[in-house]
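Co-fold these.
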Amino acid sequence: MYIIAMNYSGFFIPTLREVPADAVIASHRLMFRSGMIRKLANGLFAYLPLGLRSFRKVEQIVREEMDAIGALEMKPTVVQPGELWKESGRWEVLGEGMLRAKNRLDNDFVISPTAEEAFTAIVRDELSSYKQLPLVLYQINTKFRDEIRPRYGVMRGREFVMKDAYSWHCDDESLDKTYQAMGRAYRKIFKRCGLSVIPVKADSGAMGGSGSEEFMVESEIGDNTLLLCKKCDYAANVEKAGCKPDFTAPPSIEEAKLSAANTPPYEKIDTPNVKTIEELGAFLKNNDGSPMSSKQFIKTLIYRAVNVELDLSSAPGCKDLERKNFAPDSAKGGVEMYPQAFFAVAIRGDLDVNEAKLAALVKAGEVALAPDADVVRLTNAPVGFAGPVGLAALPVIVDHTVTSMNDAVTGALAKDLHYRHVAYGRDFTPWMTGDLRTVKAGDLCPACGGTLYEKKGNELGHIFKLGYKYTRSMNVHYLDENGKSQTPTMGSYGIGVDRALASVIEEHHDEAGIIWPVSVAPCHVIIVPIKYDGEVKTAADRLAADLENAGIEVLLDDRNERPGVKFNDADLTGIPWRVVIGDKGLAQSQVEIKRRGEKESRMTPLDTAAKELQQKINEELGMRNEE
Amino acid sequence: MYIIAMNYSGFFIPTLREVPADAVIASHRLMFRSGMIRKLANGLFAYLPLGLRSFRKVEQIVREEMDAIGALEMKPTVVQPGELWKESGRWEVLGEGMLRAKNRLDNDFVISPTAEEAFTAIVRDELSSYKQLPLVLYQINTKFRDEIRPRYGVMRGREFVMKDAYSWHCDDESLDKTYQAMGRAYRKIFKRCGLSVIPVKADSGAMGGSGSEEFMVESEIGDNTLLLCKKCDYAANVEKAGCKPDFTAPPSIEEAKLSAANTPPYEKIDTPNVKTIEELGAFLKNNDGSPMSSKQFIKTLIYRAVNVELDLSSAPGCKDLERKNFAPDSAKGGVEMYPQAFFAVAIRGDLDVNEAKLAALVKAGEVALAPDADVVRLTNAPVGFAGPVGLAALPVIVDHTVTSMNDAVTGALAKDLHYRHVAYGRDFTPWMTGDLRTVKAGDLCPACGGTLYEKKGNELGHIFKLGYKYTRSMNVHYLDENGKSQTPTMGSYGIGVDRALASVIEEHHDEAGIIWPVSVAPCHVIIVPIKYDGEVKTAADRLAADLENAGIEVLLDDRNERPGVKFNDADLTGIPWRVVIGDKGLAQSQVEIKRRGEKESRMTPLDTAAKELQQKINEELGMRNEE
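Predicted complex below.
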């Protein structure tokens, strides 16, 4: 940054005592009160000069770490042609969250919410040979997403700045290398910003091998639920978290049959007017008279899946299923997919099915509960009476929890009827088993078996192996070493700059204000003369000049205000080092220095203050810079 | 910039031989061919890594010079709430050139074409005391204007980056001080970029004292016509250019009467079926039989003016004109304006009326030729027969050229009738005289009387004393030293970054490619090893490292390409200094260095090449940095 010494009075730092009514989190309150941001409209914030300085420092840290791994910065437009989004298919998919505009010529435009399309379109036109790969491009640029309820200041604004990087590769190995380098760069970026992030890996087993890692910060208002292990460093987003089953490996069918050796044969029971699992438990009762627990039921749900890649040719009820070749012009022969398929999922009655896991397991573009009409058609019963026994019209997928159930209650594929004494392996066999449950606090860690607990988190960054999604739909090709046309595989990597900045404040503040890490502070030192006059003024000016010459960014509070006002503003704006200069100290050639956030200040000779501060500041910067 | 030494093969520089069909100007052709930009859609260009480096350098030069004069950078949003634009009244005025969007909640948004409203809204909320003024804020940010025919690459794109600054002041003196500082900063910015600009001042007389200066570059495709003086440094936009009348001062009415002493009394003549001034000239003839010249006619045009501030209470026909108080809640009492008024303008027959000058003269928001019905009503004659003699229904304004006409032909306020032998001062007197003509090549310079000539130009920057336009309509107030509420006056100052960059290329290129000034070159030195192998490779790597250590930005062409290909790309991309390293030179421990754009290269010792280049580069940077 260019200005390194500036006078407070010449700067524009409108600090405030009051807190806007809608500012419920610390970063929103403090960014507003310290004069970093102002609201232009719901979800639209202007960065004032002080705020912009910190904002640019986060940007620059991101830029440096991207450049360090060989990513190349470029700049497509913020307003993008709608045609690109129609080509990729996201014009429809992204819905109302994407801000669109039509110009006078009736051209469609999109205010970029992300930029896979624009980058891929440029690379498509320039890519000819495998020699150009891998290629990693990025931008740090304005984005817009029309949040329905923008809240929490810049933490969830409509307009924001994102660093988004995209990479193209000949093969998975090359993609993985860049993906790993990005992961390391992200860790370094967050460390340099003073942020404690929780890297959350998608369970690569459940996600079918395509890698993805989210970088979360803990936050009471976080929009993600994380599951963390008390024993090891396992962390997962609830959307994707795996968990260790209550046994070491699912039993085989033979083992399951054996464990059901003493279970009575299953029998049909009337369950009239019973609507919920709870009512059913109370109605049925155990031998000791206690109501049956939901853990004794097998819940069976019918899902509709779209664009399924998994081979279903030998799956029950799928023999005549339509299968289509997508991107048939690709040299690799394109992909065969089922535009639509149905699956029954059996899971223990107290658990929920994680749809992301199910989609990954069957390699589907999307899954959702099937419409009632399809449920009735496939189960031959009203909704609510599905069960795995005798279900032949579609593939039955069984969650690991069901594989140890040897005396369960299930729906009987008929109105007001259930089966009891149903045993897995004996009374039904699955087409497939897998980990499909939504993990909860108290479940066991899939890595070490420790107990999982929950935290709320906000996503600051995300690295993702995209694969062929865009390169196929947008027809990107290169010639390989043998001169054959190939489609490259792709990765994408994002960091929200505004959100990272706000998260720094969430992590570093106290009652009085922000406590900036030096790396992203708007400036390093604030000099507070008790009265900016006479010898104090001379000393303050000299110290500011000395610091400026040493490359330290200084704000000199030259205002004619009471010391209390100046101290409060210094605390509120959170400048890391405060130097107080007053007559009393000066009589001893001393000034008072204090690290924001620390309780104790101390006196130090005026003559060596600049050197001392320089050393402290460089130490802190150096520490964060270490690999 | 972070990366200072990089390998060509690891960079993304897709150079091209062919020129896109629509690239008709050098900068568009060369930015495309050298891999600086690619087109995403009409008027939407992506900067590739090489282009972005130069782009950022222009931005940084602008930023440094803004910071140096105490302007404070901030960042409002690109997508702005429509409400702000409705408040200022520009929601309607800016029309279809402004891209608008509606979100799912039916909120109106504007993709910012400029930001007077957003900045003024923020300042309005924070401004309380005169002590906060003057305040100068700026941003360097994305803008969008929906050009109907976007052309010439980034020179006239739809999306572009503009530095826009705004200032608020207690009084005109303070505004003028900032305005002058901006003017000096702009000259320095363009000098540092290697741009020869033509500063074009609005004629402050004609423009009613409100200052405005445009910074133009000559361009064959320029959308402005400039008038320049052959003798002095006078330069003006044709829209606003003044010119020296053919006499030193307009004659007084007495002088005019005297000069008409020998003119016969005016008389009415029939001019049936005569439609144009040319036909009238041929019809009337001079005494020697030659057709009369258009210079012998007085053309009289009726204008309708909107929001007129000039006091018309004593003007002919204006006694009962409606007058309204705008912004009556202002402490200064608001402004009295006539929502509508009509004026007759008399000008020599061969000349055109400059509407901008007329608007400035009568202090109108806008002027345009009056609708036919009004002309008929006010002149009591069909359109085409207006004349100043006997015209009493509205004020007659006389261009300076008319004040020396003592024997002229004019319309006679009746169908197919004209007057001849009309003399200014004798047969009619004006309500007002002024310089209203559209200046043309061949006219005389208003500063020195030299002859004016024309050039086409493109506007790179504009500084402008806005006055109270936005602060009044948006109700901005502060308390003055006496605790009284006042409205601040305002200035605005813009520079187009993309256009400045393209203009550098327009000014610095040859057949082979770009010739960058060091200050905005994507990097300073390109090292071209004849073959990147063996000792040549060792020497090239060492030189790159030496240059990097000296803070010089280096591109090392490590590609396995023929030397001719590498030389062509080096010329095309225009890197200022080229170092060729080959076996032959190395045998003598020599390398070849050449400044791009110069014919001659020369050999220099490898050992001292880095030092020599560093010196040359810093010399050039220092030269441009000088005040």
